[in-house]
Amino acid sequence: MALVTSPTQQKGIVITVPVLVLTLSVAAIFFFFLLSSLSTCNCPLSSTTTDAANAVRNGAVSDFARSEDDSSSSSSGRFSERTSATKEDIEWVRDQIHKNGLHMQDNVLRKGINPRTRAQQLQDLIQFKGISHYEGLEANNHTALPCPGELLVEEHHSNYGEPWAGGRDVFEFLAEASHITPNSHVLEIGCGTLRVGVHFIRYLNPENFHCLERDELSLMAAFRYELPSQGLLHKRPIIVRGEDMDFTKFGSGVVYDLIYASAVFLHMPDKLVWVGLERLASKLRPYDGRIFVSHNIKFCSRLGGEECTKRLTSLGLEYIGKKTHDSLLFNHYEIWFEFRRSGA
Predict the structure, then answer these.
(1) In b/e form, how buried is each residue of 5-31, taking b as 16+ CB within 10 angstroms?
(2) Pick from 204, 214, 211: which is nearest to 188 by CA?
(3) How far apart are CA 294 and CA 292, in angstroms?
(4) What is the mean pLDDT of each run of 10 residues along the chain (344 residues)?
(5) DSSP 27
(6) 211 in Cβ contact with 187 (< 8 Å)
(7) Taking the mean position of all CA atoms in its chain, how far away is CA 245?
(8) According to the model, what pLDDT value does residue 30 have?
């Protein structure tokens, strides 16, 4: 029997199977190329993202790194390098002490702990050599860089008029005041046992820290204890034994972003200080480079203000002003005098 179709019924659109397959194939290819183009998009980064990338790439210490650290670092797993502790850092360590119920106690003999002075520790080292040690010929076959006992017990940490920890304070102040990055070049006049220098060496790229030091025992402490014990031998700092402000061994082409002298010019004749400034002025980066001198600048003030300014100008140097910084760990502040190179 034949079916009768109503004249009012709408006709449907018939799509054959081959056409349907072809349409779906074309659509799949289109979406494939679309996703590929999106994944390789060279879209410009937002200013915030660009600033973050530059901060990480340049190793710069910036307010951005500090403000963004809590929000972005925790999710990305990356931390921008800093030089000093933030308020949040201070609160964290105080909170840890409080949570653990810690209070300062007398350092007396107790189970597993036998307090010793440095002198007692050195005597123990000489007499007993350590809990486990090699005897006879074997004693010379297992220590790659034998270190004198006086250095092992860190007697040189008491060579200064303040705690060893003050070196970190100096580093933080100078690094931030001069806006250095790991690529910067730094010269310390009189680095001693690296109380400050060890922090610069760790922060800077290899061979970017230079030092001129005259004291032999201080240099022995630097080379035979501080650098090896801090794991910094690979940084290859250029430390030269010398005096009389002779900087020729550092090369003629180096340009410094920071030159500093901590309590060194106090012990030099004024004439020698001026000789040093004359030799270093042309090695300081114009405008952005800084010279910092601690405690006082009597080599300048003894000339009188006008004469001092005139002499600095003749060297291409300009006095910026006086700054102070506080210590993180003990009641102490230090005074620094800042100079810059005023022309190319």
Answers:
(1) eeeeeeeeeeeeeeeeeeeeeeeeeee
(2) 211
(3) 7
(4) 45 57 64 53 39 40 40 39 88 95 91 87 82 78 88 91 92 96 97 97 98 96 96 97 92 95 93 96 96 95 94 96 94 95 83
(5) H
(6) yes
(7) 26
(8) 63
Handedness of CA 68, 70, 76, 82 (dihedral sign): positive
Residue 58 has a pLDDT of 44
Q: Which of 55, 178, 92 is closest to 188 using CA atoms?
A: 178
Separation of CA 133 from chain center: 36
Q: Helices (H), strands (E): how many in the chain?
A: 14, 7
- Give which of 123, 190, 195, 126 is closest to 157, Cα–Cα: 195
Report the chain's terminal Cα–Cα distance, integer Å: 107
**Residues 166 and 332 sit within 8 Å (Cβ to Cβ):** yes
B/e letters for 225-241, b = 16+ CB within 10 Å, e = fewer, are bbbeeeebeebebbbbe
Burial pattern 40-78, b for ≥16 Cβ within 10 A else e, equals eeeeeeeeeeebbeebeeebbbbeebbebbeebeeeeee
Selection from 204, 312, 185, 315 nearest residue 258 by Cα: 185
Its pTM surpasses 0.85: no
Q: CA separation (Å) from 289 to 177, 198, 282?
A: 11, 21, 11
Within 8 A by CB and 6+ apart from 174, the residues are 180, 196, 258, 260, 292, 336
Whole-number Å distance between alpha carbons of 336 and 296: 8
The answer to whether residues 206 and 183 touch, using CB atoms and an 8 Å cutoff, is no
Beta bridge partner(s), residue 322:
337
